[in-house]
Every structure is written in C-alpha cells, then in structure tokens.
Amino acid sequence: MKDLKSLVKKYWYSAAILLLFLIAVFLRVYRLESLPDVLHIDEAGLGYNAWCLAHYGTDRYLNVRPFYPQNFYGGQSPLYTYLLALLIRTVGQGNLSLTLLKIPAVLASLLLFFVGTKSIRLVFDDQKWSIAAAFLLAVCPYYIMSARFALDCNLMLCCSAVALLFFIRFTQTKTLRNLILSGVFFGITMYSYALSYFLIPIFLICISLYLLYTKEISFRRVLLWAACVCIIALPVILFVCSLLFHWETIHFLGLTISPIASERMSDVGVTSFWENIKDIIKITLTCGSYRLDAVPKFYTLYPLSIPFIVLGFIGAVYSFLVSLYKRTFQADSIYLLFFLSGLIIPGTGKGYIHGNAGAYGTGAQEEGGITGHNFCIGISAYITHLSLILGDITVSDHLIQLHTCNDTCKITAIIDGSKC
Fold it and tell me: Which pTM does this prediction carry?
C-alpha cells in the first residue's frame, strides 16, 4: 500500500498530463476528415497551391517557388503551404486528402499543448496550475477548432508560443542559447502569418525596453536577439520591402519574392482605432460571425471565463505597473506586453487587417497561462481568438476530390471563377 501511494505521489503529475494529452488528441483527430463538414475557401486555395508546388514547383497561378503563394485578393503565408507540400511529396506520395491537408494544424495544436503547459510550469512553478493550463489547452473550443481548419494563420500561435517559451527560459537562466533560440523561433513565426510582420517588431521593442529598464538584459544581447530574428526572417523583410517600395521581383535562396499582395498595405490606417478595439474585444470574449475559431454559446473559452478574463487583465496591468515602479522584472509581464502589442494591430486596421489582427492581438499569447498567485491573470492571457478569415464562402469536399484526380481545369474554374 505504501508503495502504491509513493508511486501515485511520484507519477500523478505525469499521468494527469498524459491523460489530458490523450483527450486533446481525441478531440482533434476524431473524424478529422468530416468534422467540420465544409472546406473553407482559404483551405481549398492553400491545398491546391501546396499540391501544385509539390508536383510542379509553382503555385496555381504559375509563380515559380513563390515566397508568398498567391491566393484570393492577395496571398497566403509560406510556412503552412510549404509544410503541406512536403507532406504531399512524402507522406501522401503525391496525393492530397482532407486529412493530410489538416495534419500541420493538428501537429501545431498538439505541440502547443506541451509548450503551453511547460511555460506555465516555468513561470509559476506549480504543478496544479500547469495541469489547469493543460486542461484548458485540451478542451477549449478555440484550440480544438484551430486543429480542424487548415488555415495558415493558426500556425502563428504555436510558433510564437515556442519563441516565448525559450524567452522565458532565458529570463530565468540568462543563457545565450535560449536567447538565440527565442530569436530563431520569432523569426520562424514571421513566416506563419502576415500579421506577425506588425506584431513581432512591436513586441520585441516593448519587451526589450522593459528588460533594459529592469536591468534583466544588456543592450548588446538585445542587439544579438534582434539580429537572430532578422537573419532568420530575411526573406520576410525583403518581401515587406517589396510591398512598401514596389521593388521588382527578387530571386533569393531559390524563392521568388514579388509584391503580389501589395493591395493589402492599404488596409492599414487609424481612422477607426477605438471602434476596431471594441469590436475585437467583443469577438474575443464571445465569438464573431465566422465559426472558424469559436462555437456559438460556448465561445472561444466558454462564457464562464469572461469575468476571469476581465479581472485577470486588470490584475496583469497592476502587476506590470508595480514592476515598473519597483524596477523589478515580472515574468507574466511578457504575456501582457505580447497581448498589448497585438491589440495595437486591429486598431490600425481596416477591412481585412481589422478582421484578422484582433484575433492575433489576443490569441498569440495563450502561454500567459494560469498564475499560481492570481488565477485571473492566467485566464486573461489565455484569450485565443485567431483567424477571422476574409470572405464567408466554404467549398465542399468535391474540390479535394478534383485535386486527387488531377482535374486542374475544374479546380481552376471552382477557385478562380474561370471557364473550363
């Protein structure tokens, strides 16, 4: 009996995490090919582009190895598209299916489960709160929905979470290795979704100033960190420059970088800042008109979470202000600054950017987690509303069937509206 008690005491945490992980896997992969029973138009475009790249090295508009594959009204981020193309060539052996289309989203969601749980454990050093975080990551509507839609934007949450995890480890250990890895993953994050072009630089500036003020980092290391991000994200920087300055096509590292989505830059503005902020807070706490990241009546994080979110945000701001007054570093301030950095984006957006930026403004910091000392702060940082997607059209499984049958004429007719 004593041996049994000692085993339970020794392994209860690992057993609980394993059980929650199995629940998370089930909720994400059960009938993955048929739930939901529609294919979003962006999923269709992404899948077809990836299939074309896997077979011919072009997107469906015949752009050769494009950095930013062309899609409706602009383009799609390269990370998901090229990961899927790799899976088509290897796992799919040249074929594309609905299940394969969603595999990157599922893997990203499951990786997020472990990264989020580990982050909470590092910040608050409390196993019970880590389990609470793991439970939320396993069962909350957004985390489940993000694994069941093959949308390029959903990879941003996982990538930024990994970057933040290494950054937390750096603040605790001060090791150069963790700082460099954080910079590398922030650079990778910028391949996951276009809104990271705004969010990541704003956050890096804010957190660097905070760490310098609290004397947690030297200016030399800040420069090294920024250099790591810039080196990894160099094709992204070239792409953004091509949009801003209307450069000619660039061929870099085998990729074709051209300003195919330049019209989206016109979506940036400040004319409706406060209206945009109010709208995005509303759809974050409840759910928007699109059903890609929340479930009606259940919202992104269940209605019960709303008071905790509000109180938690107030608690997080108070903790941050105290840390400024005392000039002491607070780890949970990392997530508050990430939240605020993202919240700036929807305020400066119109149309497309307005619809998506707010999602990331709150969503990309799920890692803020459950604070052992203040439950509310943690809940506030778990607001995860991503990917309000342009357009409200969905496409049926017929499109994927055409993909696998190589019927490119009909595919083009469905996607582009052309005649076959």
Answer: 0.81
